[in-house]
Amino acid sequence: MPRNAYFVAIAFFATVNGLFNSAVLSFVFFHVLLLAPAILFGSAPLTFMFASLITATVTIIVAGIPAALYERLRGLDQSDDVSLWIWLAGTALLTLPAMGRFLTIGL
Amino acid sequence: MTTGTILSQWYFHLPNFILAALFYTLLGRVLLGMVIDANSSNFIWRFFCRLTDPVVGLVAAVTPRAAAPVVVWLFALVWLFAARVALYFALATSNLLPTG
């Protein structure tokens, strides 16, 4: 599989999680309002978009940890196919709670 | 909030301030990185890099190597934000969160 295909798939799952995982999204929204109101000018829509972006990024970051550990254990200088598969599978697993709403509502 | 109150609640304000300072400095690094060369001798750029390199190094250790440097910086921003949330959460659940 081409490298960019992995990244597109990872970004897709993360976007779905960032938009449809209401439990994580509301938690992040509350804390963004509390901790970083200045950078969003106190605007609720901007805060929601930022919270959604943070949730999507957290999905990618957390899913990337096992892939990074695999690379360090194998002593790899570059990510290989296995590592990218681990990253993609991790992102897909973390997106499972949001999949129900995504399949109902859609993009 | 008076200075005395802030000092007596240093266990929240000090780590929160350090994390916030790192967050905004890293944000500055990301923004400056769009218009400045990575090896630039600009002193603001070097200051941003020196201050945030330890955080970026830690985050790079748990990020797959396929991620570009700017992506690692953005991931570090999210880690710092998560650290602030964790601090807030830990103190709130221990009833140690400053009030007023």
What does this structure look like?
- The complex is a heterodimer of chains A (107) and B (100).
- Chain A has one domain (3-101).
- Chain A is an all-alpha fold.
- Chain A starts with a helix and ends with a helix.
- Chain A has helices at residues 3-20, 22-35, 44-74, 81-105.
- In chain A, helix 1 (3-20) runs parallel beside helix 4 (81-105).
- Helix content of chain A is 82%, strand content 0%.
- Chain B has helices at residues 3-8, 10-33, 43-61, 69-93.
- In chain B, helix 2 crosses helix 3 (43-61) and helix 3 packs across helix 4 (69-93).
- Chain B is flat and about 45 Å long.
- Chain A: The chain crosses the membrane at residues 6-36, 48-70, 82-103.
- Chain A: Keywords: Membrane, Transmembrane, Transmembrane helix.
- Chain B: The chain crosses the membrane at residues 12-32, 70-91.
Can you describe this structure in just a few lines?
Chain A is built from four helices and no strands. Chain A is mainly alpha-helical and 107 residues long. Chain A has one domain.
Contiguous helical run count of chain B? 4
Outline of chain A: globular
Helix proportion range of chain A: over 70%
What's the main sheet of chain A like?
none
Largest sheet of chain B: none
Assembly type of the chains comes to: heterodimer
**DSSP summary: helix tally of chain A:** 4
Q: How many angstroms does the end-to-end distance of chain B come to?
A: 7 Å
Q: SSE order of chain A, as H and E?
A: HHHH
In the predicted model, the low-confidence regions of chain A spanning at least 5 consecutive residues are none
Strand element count of chain A = 0
Strand tally of chain B, please?
0
Domains of chain B, number: 1
Distance between the termini of chain A: 25 Å
What would the average pLDDT of chain A be, to the nearest integer? Answer: 90
Q: Low-confidence parts of chain B, pLDDT < 50 over ≥5 residues?
A: none
SSE class of chain A: mainly alpha
Q: Strand-and-helix sequence of chain B, N→C?
A: HHHH
Largest interface: A-B, 27 and 19 residues
Average per-residue pLDDT of chain B, rounded, comes to: 90
Transmembrane segments (chain A): 6-36, 48-70, 82-103
Keywords (chain A): Membrane, Transmembrane, Transmembrane helix
Transmembrane segments (chain B): 12-32, 70-91
Keywords (chain B): Membrane, Transmembrane, Transmembrane helix
